[in-house]
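Re: that chain you flagged

S.,

Sorry for the slow reply, it's been a week of failed gels. I finally had a moment to sit down with the sequence you sent. For the record, here it is as I used it:
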Amino acid sequence: MKKKFISVAMFCALIASSPVWVGCSDYDDDIANLQSQVDALKQTVDVSTAEALKALQEAQAALQEDINALTAGKADAQAVKDLQETVAALQTAITENDITKIGELSSQVSELIAQVNGIEGDLDKTQSDLQQQKTELEGKVNSLRTDLEKAIADKADQATVDSIKSELDAAVTNLTDVENRLVEVEKWIKNNGQELAKLTANVSQINNLIAKISEEAATTISDPAILAAIKALPTTVSSLTTLQQQIGKETEAGSILYRLAALEEWKNTIVTELLTGTGYSSFADICQDIKELQEALTGSGSETPGVDPSDPGLVEQFNALKAEMAKFDMIQSVVYIPNLTSTEEGGYLLKSSVLKVYNEKLTTADKYETVAQGIASNKIQFRVSPASKANDFIGENAKYTLTFDGSLISKKSFSKVKTAGAPVLVDAESGIIEYSVETEIGENEIWAVCAVIKAVDPQPAEGEESTGSAKDNTDLTTTYFKATRVTDKVKTIEITNDNSSATSLPYMNPDGSNSMLDYSKNRKVVGKAEDGTVIVEDMVGEYGVPTTISYELSTLTNDDKSDDNWFKIENGQLTLPNASNAMIGRKVTVTPVADFGSFQLKAPAYKEVTIARRVVEHDVQETKELTWNKDIQFIALSSDEMDEIIKATELSRGDFMELIDENEPADLTKLCLMTGKDILEKMPAATDKVANDNTLYIVVPAKMNTGDAKKLDITLKEENSSTTRTDSYIIHVNVSKMQYPVTVIEKNPTRWNQDGQTIEYTPQFKWVEGTTDKVESVGNTFDVKDLFADYAALSKQATDFGFKLVINVKNNTSLKGVDYNATNQILTYNKSTFNGEDVEFEIYLDYNGTKISATNCKISVQKLSGTWTNPTQMAMSVTDLSKTYNVAEGAKWVDVAGRTIWENGAKVKIGKDDKGNWLSDFNKDPFSTDVYGMTVPSFHVIDPKTGNTINDIYVNVNSSTGEVSFKDPAKQSPFEAAYTVTIRISADSPWGEITGMKDDHVDMTFTIAEGAKQ
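Prediction finished late last night. Pasting the structure tokens below so you have them in one place:
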């Protein structure tokens, strides 16, 4: 979309109200008209100073929170501070119309933004955490979708389907929330320098307005300039929106305030564009704005009268302006963006890498031989301002060329750094482009490098000559960065791979095929310095050497050299050409050797490999059904299944039964194979479950939970004998998805809300004996057992079937003032410390680590905080300093049922009078922990900018009653001007927000009027 500074709406605001050109005879009428508008404005627009200050302070606090979040954890705090100070200075220059400073400071802001963008902070950690959460939630959503589809296909009961669907819906909701937050965080990380600049500018605007309003020291604001500036502020909080709407209602189209607000919005837009460097999207946009401005001023193209079109210099002036603006149709600045490489090698952004490897055969003193130049390209990024110009570097018809310049003492010839290939547009929105750079720098040289940007003459149309317009454009250079030559001197190497730590190799694979050990899988040649530290992670990837790797075999464990014939290695793959059980126990050591052309370098040998016996595997064909049981289960194998297993082992029946005996466990706590006869020897009481013979059973331990359908492995280990060909036999048993006896948690329908996820706890009122409306106390416990339809029955099932009913507080670490007793399932609220946070529970059936029927719920407390009524006068002005004043007059706090608990600066009286009449609706102090445990309202003079309590020089306020008195300096002051303080009334409740008192406080103004005296 085309970006424009000047909008049609603004033209209407500036011009439509009256003609620009008038005769001299009309001056008096115009002045009178303007004066009448000012007078009318003062009469109709009545904005409370206290309300305006409150809205502006809230907006400033909200913006500061965003700034804190944006800059948290930034390692370079000075860069952040410099950017904020420069932005403030730029805004002052704009206000003062200092063109020179605007240009200088805009350039500084662009450079500082790029610097801040390159500094990692807490937001980067947040991004990493959110990305991890997103990955985990995506996995969970996919898994639940599969479970749901399978449950529907298997015709599972409705409760199971509903449970999975509910969990899936919750997971999708959480995933959407995380994705939205991740997008927002990534946006801030990508442009956090620009965002910080804009936020700082907004805070500066608000601080200036607060200072101006405070200087006026009036109860209402009528200055059109201040009102217009407030109306034009970017909205950040609801109170500021309300204030702007109030100003807008009193603003007629064409009025002074209307036009002032339009100008303020235009100015704010220009400030934003200068800070972010986005500017106009093209020269055509500038020309269009000039054209519209020309039409608006002259009245051409509309019925609106404008500048007298007979003015002979008007058209020439606009044509000259267009011609001058054409010279500025180019980039404003290009700055390089530091990246990870700038923290390496002493901070050098570009490096020319050379690989030297130790060659002991060299006769020179330095035995390191140069073997390769680095083959990896450097990557360097630049930020172009305005961002729209970044695209002009890309493609065949690019409008700019980028080369490099540098200096080494007095030398200046820089073909040693050059671009390789076409640039890449990394981020069009931010104007970021990336170049691949080739370097060739001499040994021990350090260069200061900058990029040079030159405009390219546009290709003329066919039949036309080149205009040579590029000559009007000034060459740009970026800030300087460092480049040097880096020499990696490798003394020793290590050749790593996925199997370098393998210590055994079976002489034959389970399926009878030849076995093999692959030393080439994920192979890397690692270069190490003389002290053994790694200096090159991957020599082949970074330098393209060594080109060949060979291997030496060492098999001599005695004088028998025939071992050499048993092993073979080709292309890094170790094989056994004549595999047989005769090889069992033989050993081999493999040593890799790297070839660097003129010499070779041997790497450390891999671990010694011993040829092992084979492993035999067999699958039981029939899938076995498993049901959760708190006791041991026995699954009988058929005679055919037993015969197939024996056949696969190649053992006789007698040898196989001996193998079963050898692997009999000491107890029945793991999956195994046993005969019925052996089972009864260990468990005589199992006669109703197994036969007393050689029938083979799969023994399933008590409370074994297999979860989803899977393959279980039962291993039968042969006694360790070198004459036996087989090491072990693995029997694979396929089992179906575990069946559970209880899969649904029945909820108490009277407790849960309709969403099935939230519960509202209403503390119980205890009435004074003999009454139904006089409060004795308010309860503070919640019985979690009430969440279940029948907690006792579910607990008994858990005992009978051997699972656990788990009730966990999820947010236990963040909760304050809440205690959960897992023994009696009672939740207790501490009224003195409870912060109003919902208690989050996770409830599920635990089948030995598997969660069934998991549900999350939030328990919120009914909002009992009641309603606050402000004092009668929220902006009090006094002249007699000999008196005291009660600013609490008219203030009132009632509880949720409308019972008064505090009024006119004092708590209500409790109990009965001496005649037995009730003094209030409470028998005990409503602010005590026996009842509500809320905080009694208090009064303090505060700094309206910070909200901090201050000790005012003139005014003293009783913190308990709100009574205002005056200090001696006030009684002695002539008060030639009015003096205003802000008094904050604060209260707090653990039972939610107090209606009418947002954020637990209200602010009022107290003014000592001009001329006040004792």
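What I noticed first: The mean pLDDT is 78.

Talk soon,
D.
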